[in-house]
Amino acid sequence: MSTLEIRDLHVSVATDDPAAPRKEILRGVDLTVRSGETHAIMGPNGSGKSTLSYAIAGHPKYEVTSGTITLDGEDVLAMTVDERARAGLFLAMQYPVEVPGVSMTNFLRTAATATRGEAPKLRLWVKEVKSAMADLDIDAAFGERSVNEGFSGGEKKRHEILQLSLLKPKIAILDETDSGLDVDALRIVSEGVNRYKADNDGGVLLITHYTRILQHITPDHVHVFSGGRIVESGGAELADELEKNGYVRFTDADKAEA
Ligand code: ADP
Ligand code: MG
Ligand code: MG
């Protein structure tokens, strides 16, 4: 049983102009994600959803100016990026990076070694990867390709879910995992997330602009993000309301306050 706890989180981002003041993006985020729970974070573009995931992951551009993030009571903000992964946090990036010259299989083994604390035995590892790839309808030849190089949008997303199923984190943060997926890829990726949840009692923070992925992955809690914080929380029915009415009611309230 694990708990990711975010308390009154404020995050600023360094702008390209070094003389300019830092821009505050997150303005007091409170969120608790436990094992076995799925939380959807929804909100308009630019509301700070990705900033939240970068801050949890420890991206150097995003500075936590106040507030806390803990995983099972341990101070996540004091950990390096690697330590966060080892502690059981996983971030699937909105825009995954390319790693030329490193095959998928090797990349995944290195990642697994880092999180498990020892290198998985090669023969077992190859088996494990093959089986996980088959679950995700990924071609075997894919394992020999360089990480993300020339991958289509859908292939990148499947790769992220492949990582998720092999690394078995305690809490997974999935940022716009649904963007750019066709109907079949969306189903396969969603099934991968659901398998991860079921097999590991994993906690999921699912960040998405659109409600369609929530038809495949049922959230226990839905939070609306606007202006750098959670402005409303509810159950799956809140996503249905957003599907009908969009974010207007939240963005208007935000403008009125600003
Ligand atoms: P979302 O994921 O909800 O679309 P983001 O977290 O990407 O929102 O962005 C929130 C706000 O922070 C936006 O106004 C965006 O322009 C700004 N922002 C995010 N990252 C950076 C950055 N690296 N440099 C400058 N501004 C940024
Ligand atoms: Mg954005
Ligand atoms: Mg984003």
UniProtKB/TrEMBL annotation:
Q: Where is the ABC transporter domain?
A: 4-252
Q: Name one Pfam family in it.
A: ABC_tran
Q: Which UniProt keywords apply?
A: ATP-binding, Nucleotide-binding
Q: Does the keyword ATP-binding apply?
A: yes
Q: Does the keyword Nucleotide-binding apply?
A: yes
InterPro entries, per database record: AAA+_ATPase, ABC_transporter-like_ATP-bd, FeS-cluster_ATPase_SufC, P-loop_NTPase
Q: Which PROSITE patterns match?
A: ABC_TRANSPORTER_2
Q: What does the sequence similarity comment in the record state about its family?
A: Belongs to the ABC transporter superfamily. Ycf16 family.
Q: What is this protein called?
A: Fe-S cluster assembly ATPase SufC
Species in which this protein is naturally found: Rhodococcus antarcticus
